[in-house]
What we know:
Strand content: 15-25%
Amino acid sequence: MNDVIDVEHKETSLVKADNKLQVVSRPPDIVLQEAHAAAAALTDVLSKKKKKLEFNGKQYLEYEDWLLLGQFYNAYCKTHDAVEIEIDGIKGAKARADVLDRNGVVIGGAEGYCMRDETQWKTKPFFQLASMAQTRAGSKAMANRLRWVAVLAEGVSGTPMEEMKEQIDSESEKKQGKKTFDNQACPECGSNKYVRKSKYDDSKEWYCYKKLGGCGHQWDKAKSEGKGDFADYNKAHNDNYTAESKITKAQQKEIFDNAKKAGMSNEMRNALIADVGYSVSKDIKKKDLPEILKAIETYGQKDLAPEEEADVPI
């Protein structure tokens, strides 16, 4: 039978003594007062995070947030080794995490999974799946013990971020779907399914969304084969139509590969580029690219060959 010890205004925890569970009882008003203080401190930390995971008006706590909350209550997380598993033919990783009090007594726990049927994990190496399974287990274990405090923080959900991320990404994909550009193709992988437009000023304008299955490539403008108003917009803004824009890395590589196939030395190639007015290939403007490629293509012909007695610059 459990012995109830009524202790007021003392720091206590759940402990075992003589194989009997001793439940420490404290006045509810004191418990709530401390919980609100912990929630306020948590809110202050969350408000300063640069990247927040918010969905439907709620902010979701990441693993480190749950660990911080645990510090307020002398609750610590211990994750166990992840193991490889297979469920209904789907492979993945499974891990367990325990919540310990300051005396090392297990006061909670949970299991976490990371499976290869998840879009962003299907091609990752096992050690990354194992790490995510441990993270999910740790977050869930700490949330099971402390979510009652987390929900006291303004605008915070008691559900761990790791449990919501796939749903949030899915909902984000649906919303993004309304903003997708069917006629846009990633210049790296050729796919148009995952092309998105960036909302950040300091990044490339377009990207192939890796978390949704894209290759992760980023570029400044998009390619269009479409017709109508949208194609007209692209024609005015696309790299392929903006003559003053610089060539891409792929086009730089095209210059190098073509020069090599034509038998040009590096010095000769660089001299050709310099003749067009550029010291380095990355500065070449697209309007001058056809001239350079044509010169490489006709390299060796008589009209481009140097005079026999001409001095070769060093």
